[in-house]
Every structure is written in structure tokens, then in C-alpha cells.
Amino acid sequence: MNKNFLKVNYNCTIKSVFGLMVEMDVEEAFMIDEKSNLIGIITTKDVEKLIRRKVDLNERIYKYAKKKVYSIKGNLSVKDARNFMMTKGIGRVPVIENNKITGVLTNNNIRDNFYLELEKMFELNNKIIDNLHEAVCICDDAGTVKVWNKSAEKLYGVTKDEIVGRYLGDIFPNALIFHAIKEKKPLENRIHSPKEGKTVILSAIPIYNNGKLIAVASSDRDITEVTALSEELKKTKEKMKLLQKEYEREIASNYSFSTIIGSNQKIIECIQLAQKVSQTSASVLITGESGTGKEVFAKAIHKASGRSGHFVAINCSAIPAHLLESELFGYDKGAFTGAVNTGKIGKFEFANNGTLFLDEIGDMPLEMQVKILRVLQDGIVYRLGSSKGIVTNTRIIAATNKDLKKLILEDKFREDLYYRLAVVQLELPSLRERKEDIVPLANYFIKQIVEKEEIELKEIEDEVYSILKGYEWKGNIRELKNVIERMIILCDKGYITKEFIPKYIVEASVMAEEENEYDLEKAVRNMEERIIRDVMHMSGGNKLKAAKILNIKRSTLYYKLKLYNIK
Known about the structure:
Elements: E1 7-9, H1 14-24, E2 28-32, E3 38-43, H2 44-52, E4 72-73, H3 78-88, E5 92-97, E6 100-106, H4 107-130, E7 135-140, E8 145-148, H5 150-156, H6 160-163, H7 177-183, E9 187-195, E10 198-209, E11 212-222, H8 226-255, H9 265-278, E12 284-287, H10 294-305, E13 311-315, H11 321-329, E14 330-331, E15 344-345, H12 347-350, E16 355-359, H13 366-378, E17 380-382, E18 389-391, E19 395-400, H14 404-409, H15 415-421, E20 424-427, H16 438-453, E21 459-460, H17 462-470, H18 476-490, E22 495-496, H19 503-515, H20 520-538, H21 543-550, H22 554-563
Parallel strand pairs: 1-2, 4-5, 12-19, 12-20, 13-16, 16-19, 21-22
Antiparallel strand pairs: 2-3, 5-6, 7-8, 7-11, 9-10, 10-11, 14-15, 17-18
Helix pairs in contact: 9-10, 16-18, 17-19, 20-21, 21-22
């Protein structure tokens, strides 16, 4: 846990507390009474909201601090602490001993502890590998030896000190591990002579992390022990697969939502709820306008779930009603005229042990809704033309941009299906509700598209960002990405200026600006941003010099630079 935390007396002013938070570079301050007991908390975001509300910063924090503070005891296990934080949807929690704060536990602390435990697990695994009768060699994707057990030392006469950390080809030029690295395919039970006078049966297994090859493990036995080879290799591969699966499950749980950009409170709450529900088998209903990222959330939930099956998506509005049933449930040969002779597997079967994403669920015909409800209740699907039930363990995530409750009143959507699907509901905000995320999203897409198209981008005019922030984005994130891609592809010599923004966006942004030209708060904010940008340019990026020119504290300048996204 972190020992660097801020405790303040409940009589302190908002202004003084905020200054301390900036100085100590912490996100929150814990309010204590005369006996040092924890009685409240206030965060930098809370202060920012008070500033926007024009609250007098000389007022006492007690009036505005949150009085309900979740806390844990120091003797709680890391696992229980993590579960508590996930349940409460928080990223940090104070640790209390004898009613006094002794530290702050964060998600980063838990992650570091996980890596420590992982290292211990790898250490234990190395001890197990060392005691295996077969020779084991593990190399990274560049062919550098990472593990060389005692049986390998005995078999080849090469000690661990002589080979670990070296390129395998220096000692074994014709090693088959290099074929597994190059072809990214397993080699099993190959007769091989890696060294003169030594003939072995070798297997080399590639190890992946998130689809990327990170290592190859080989196991060798003398040819005289062929009879026992099959069973031993099977056990070894099962151990490696189990280790890889558990590793990927934990990593996915922590990082699968990292591609969802946003600092808006609503989107953060959606991410926290999605992370919490991902580890369960509960059905999820994602609502929101088109282009708000419903499928992105669905994929993130699937990835974080650790489910071994596929993520399968189907758009209920894009498939004709008479074909939807065969797409979802599949069919046996001869089920209907035109059916493939071999039959066809349905999406439910294909997503077994995985996730089925039903997009635009509000457009699903009523007769199909009845059949979907039955599958959700029984967990059994029937192919068209077959009376044989197929058990499926498929997690359902549905999405729609329609008001399902309104459709229920109009008898266009079944109420019982709605409650089956909406065990947990995520309501994604539109982009116009999260204006603060427009620039970070734009920068994310710029980086993504520049790398994909291999275009050298030199500069983006500041006015471009102002225009993008002023537009309503009725097409939401999808529209923003398309516009960014258009600007990058059409830009001249790596410079993006106002001229490359579609005309209708510029006009709409200017119109919105003109309609609100007397917004004093916005005008002051714009002037402050412009002055800071000019001074930073004058000072050549020297923050100390810029702070002196502006006659403000350097910590205040850091805060303003972050607030206005000035690099």
C-alpha cells in the first residue's frame, strides 16, 4: 500500500487542501477530526467541480467532503481487498488500524502484488521443471535461453551457467526450436540430433500471450525412453496450457478495458460496472445511440471474462427474419430447400463457452424472441430439422439504440426477455455528453490511423481541436473516427489544418460558438488557455520561466497545462 497520502483537519479551507494535493501530487485528501479519526474524503475532481460551481474556496472542506468513506483493515488479504474494491467500484481505499489511517491501497498495488505472486509461481514452476526426467529448454521469441533444467545439463553436458542468457544457436546451431519460432507452430515427437552422438525425441511448443508469440518450450528424451514419452509430454503440455490460461485471464481482467478512452464520469462508471460484471456469467444489455461503442464494450467484457470460447457477433437487423433462426441455431442436412447437405452450425453452438453478442436486439422479430428466451432459460438449442437438443454454455450480451421499455408497451418486445437480457444494464453516454473526451479520442484515432496508413504527421493546428470540440457529433465516436481518418488521408505534407475538416462540421461548430458568444465562463477559459499557450511558446516550453511570466505557482501551471491538454 502507499504511505504517501494526505491527511487534513476538517477545519482546513478548500483552497489550502487543494494546494497540498497539487504539491504532494495526490488525487485525494482524507479529512480527520481532532483525534485523527477518518471522517471524510475530498478528491481533486470534487474540487474542480466546486471551482466550476464558483464555490468560495476559503470555505471549510467539512461542508463539501464526502462523509461516507469505504475503508479496509490492514489484516485483510490482497484477494479480499481486491474483491471489496471491485464490489464498491473504487480504485483506491484507505487502510485503517485503530481508527487511524496507515496507508492507501490502489489497483496498482494489487497489480504489483499479482506480479510478485506470478514470479513466485514461476519460481516454483522452475523447481518442478528442474526435477523433470526430461530435458527442458525454454527460449524467448529471439532464441535466447531462459530455462535449462538439470536433465538438460545431464543429457547434453552443458551447464545452466554456460547457456542461460545466451543465444541457443551458439551451442546448438541446428536446434529445432528455431523452426517452432519461425513457423509459430508446435513440433511434436520429432527425431533429432542436436549434438553429435545424441539422438532424442523432441517436442517444441510455442507459448502465446494475447496472440503474440513470447516463448517456445522444448522437451527432449533419449530415444531409449520412447515408451514413456507420450504420457509425460501430455502432462507437461497440460501444465503449460494451464499456466498460460491463468496468466492470460488475470492480465485480461486488468487490461482489457485499456482501449476504452474517457475521463467522463458516466463512461468511467460504465467501465467500472463492466469490469465488475465481466467475471460473472450474467447477461448484459448495453444501450446507447449508434456509434457510442457498444460492441467495443461487449468485446472488452468477453476478453476480461476469461471464457475459453469465441466472441461471436450477430446483427439482428441485418439478417432477414426467415434466415435469423438458422443463423442462430443452425440446421441439419435436408432441413429445408437449399440447405447445405452437411448441415450448418449455429451461432449459439459456435459461441459455446464464449460470448454471443446480439446487436440491435430491438429489431428481433417477436417469434424469435420466444425462442431466444427458451434457450436462455434451458441452455439448450435445437438445430432446424433436428429434435436432438445441444447443451450450450453461452454468455449473452445484447445491445440496442432503441427504447426497449417503449417497445414493450407497444407489444413489439417481450417483457420477460427484456428482464432476462438486462440482468445488468450499461447505458453508454453520447459523445456530446462527454465533450472532455473528444480530444483524447481524436488523438487516439490519429495515432492508430497514422500507424496503419504509415503517414508521417508533423503538426495539427490548435484550431482543429477547437472545432472538433464545438461539434455535436450525432454519429458519436464512429463519426469522429471517420472524420479523423478523412483528415489524415487528405492532409497536405503532414500538416492538418482547419481546411481538411468537412465543411458541415466547421459551419456547425462556428454556429454553436456564435449562439453562445456571451458565455462569460467559456470566454474567460478560452482567453486563459490562449494566454498560457502563448507564454509557453515564448518561454520555449520552460515551465519555471512561464510560471514567473504568468505570475502563478509552478504547481498551478502544471494543473492548467493538464486541464487544457497543452503538451
